[in-house]
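ingest -> validate -> predict -> emit
validate: passed (alphabet ok, no gaps, 119 aa)
predict: started
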Amino acid sequence: MSKRLMGNKYRLGLKPWITGKQNIWVLGEKNVNWKGDKVGYHGLHSRIRRQKGLPKLCEICGKHKHLQLANKSGKYLTDISDWLYLCAKCHRIFDFTNGRGRKGHRSKFVPNSRVKLRK
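emit:
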């Protein structure tokens, strides 16, 4: 066996220092970098994903596997009950029917989306 594959000869037989210990990484409010409600877009999404978990199917149609987090109120609250896991199609319909779609944009998945956008 080559020396490269053997690793460092001085560390052979030694266990990593973390073996058998509890998770040392501090998550949540005890973390030094905790931002509370001032968290950004990606940080909030990852926090909700971690707290809510990942379901296997869309919460509206119950069919698709590739899911996105959708915000119910549009205020990006840190409350878990304010979030849904939706497939891309249901997420698009949900946003357009709640007036959060792009102005002047007509989605091919939402019937009569132009009428709904003019409200």
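Strands lie at 67-71, 83-87.
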